[in-house]
Amino acid sequence: MEEKIKKCPECGSKNLITDPQHAEVYCGDCGIVIAENLVDLGPEWRSYDDEQASRRIRTGPPMSYRIHNKGLSTPVPESLTRTKRLRGIISMDSSEKILSFALGEIDRMASALKLPVEIREATSVLYRQAAKQNLIKGRSIEELVSAMLYITCRQYGVPRTLKEIAQVSRMPLRKIRRAYIFLMRKLGIKLAPADPAQYVPRFCSELKLSDAIRERAIEILKSDEGAGAAKGWGPTGTAAAAIYLAANLSGVSVSEKEIARVAGTTPITIRNRYKELQERLKLNDDFLSHLNPKGGVYSVT
Questions:
Q1: Side by side, which strands form the sheet with 33-36?
Q2: Residue 188: its pLDDT value, please?
Q3: Would you kindly state where each structural domain of the chain is located, as residue ranges?
């Protein structure tokens, strides 16, 4: 009842106060008691620090797909460490051992890439879905989970490339790409083209460029209106070229090699994308004057 009450029925005030001692909810303005005899759904014990709470709590962590048994197994006392280890090994069949290994690989790679828990959880769900459709048998688990991690990053808009995932994976890039295509076809997943603007903040941060350059690079990519994606440009190369152009328009010296190192591409790719972006921007003088108040476009060096 307490959660449903949004305002005082008497005066309409939203200043509602909960009194746990008397199990009441009353209005802080007019003083009318709105609800009484409330039930406390919290624990019946009290704790004064985290250590005391950990000893008294009788519930486990919430269900998680990142654990092979979803965290729902019966806990074993810490004093029986050897029994706990042996019990865990014996009680797992071959499919559970494979699942445990795959989920461990997802956690390892996600930790190396500094990905949030939501990405790890979603990738674990995707792996369980593929296993349910018998897509795991006869294939390398490492390359499948690497491809699944990339798919989840794309779905959640997290800027990570296949090259970055291959660097923390035990599989080469070509095998991860093959597994990616296989999963996309078998699971019927549809992904929108990667947005180069998502890579700009991370690249600018690693290059220690200013916020103004970052915003200019994003504006340049927005003015592109997907022309780069239509031509099949890679998102990292396009983002790197936009950063290079924005830095030149701001009068900041940054080399193509330095940007290419951060973006994981080549200086030639940046130079080619830079030329085409520059040519399109020349057609829009208003946009150029907005980006560069002094006028003019810097030439490729």
A1: 16-19, 24-27, 33-36
A2: 92
A3: 94-187, 196-291
3-state secondary structure 74-134: CCCCHHHHHHHHHHHHHCCCHHHHHHHHHHHHHHHHHHHCCCCHHHHHHHHHHHHHHHHCC
What is the rounded distance in angstroms from the CA atom of residue 124 to the CA atom of residue 180?
16
Of residues 45 and 138, more confidence is placed in: 138
Question: What would the two tokens of residue 7 be?
Answer: 């305002």
Given a contact cutoff of 8 angstroms between Cβ atoms, the answer to whether 216 and 250 are in contact is yes
Q: Could you report the per-residue pLDDT of 230-250, keeping only the tens digit for each? A: 466 788 888 999 999 999 888
Among positive and negative, which fits the CA dihedral 273, 274, 280, 281?
positive
Please state, for a pLDDT cut of 70, what percent of the chain lies above it: 76
Domain covering 94-187 in this structure, CATH number: 1.10.472.10
Angle, CA of 237, 197 and 173, to the nearest 5°: 45
Give the chain's end-to-end CA distance (angstroms, integer): 69
Matching fold, domains 94-187 and 196-291: yes
How sure is the predictor about 298, in pLDDT bands with cuts at 50, 70 and 90?
very low
pLDDT in tens, 17-36: 888 778 888 888 888 888 88
Q: Which residue has the tokens 């800027």?
A: 159
Q: Pick from 220, 204, 149: which is nearest to 180 by CA?
A: 149
Considering the domain delimited by 196-291, tell me its CATH architecture: Orthogonal Bundle (1.10)
Residue 298 has which token pair?
């810097």
